[in-house]
Amino acid sequence: MKRLIILLILFNTTLVFSQNQDKRHAIEYANMSSLSINNNYENYYSRTDTKRENGASVGFDINTIHGIKFFEFVSISAGISLDWNINETLISTPYIIDFRVFSSRSNQNGLFAYIQTGQNIKWSDSFNGNGVTAKLGVGVIVNRTENSCFYVELFKKSKQIETEEFEEKGYYNVNGFGISLGLTFN
Question: Which has the least CB within 10 A, 22, 37, 169, 175?
Fold first, then answer.
């Protein structure tokens, strides 16, 4: 069912993108792809009373979202991410829902804020299982060209992953702050 929903969302965004972008519409296509690094300040298992570990973990993720932008200032998107946590060597692939508010029109230089949440997908044994991810951040669109824009964002991320120790220790929880560099197309 989850995969069907993802395919339907991607199909609908393709239909929106195929419209003529030269005309001003109340609804536009939105896409953003980024590479992120974050320093985790907290790592712990949810069922243990042990002291929470601090600052020893770094994570990377590649994130792409596609959706629609309403009235050039608000976007709702869906996408997928590939997250890698170095400390526990955890790899997860959450599908994500993203809500953004922009200070400028049509990807012009300006600020934006967003909230993103998602559920991990278990593709195979090499990818970790269930759990959720959430991100809250702010960013700035810079260096606008004719067809693309670059952006930088700062965020706080929380993630939980079901590992092999789930029955005994519970979810592995990770909290951290990070920075993303990204690209969006007009």
Answer: 22
Comparing CA positions, the residue from 51, 40, 15 lying closest to residue 133 is 40
Least Cα distance to 135 among 162, 102, 158 occurs for 158
Compute the distance between CA of residue 40 and CA of residue 56 in angstroms, rounded to an integer.
7
What does pTM read for this prediction? Answer: 0.77
Tell me the three state secondary structure of residue 52.
coil
Mean pLDDT by 10 residues, the chain (186 residues): 57 48 66 90 73 67 91 90 77 90 80 93 71 93 81 92 76 88 86
172/45 Cα distance (integer angstroms) = 4
70's CB contacts (< 8 A; 6+ apart) are 26, 27, 76
Whose CA is closest to 161, among 39, 14, 46? 46
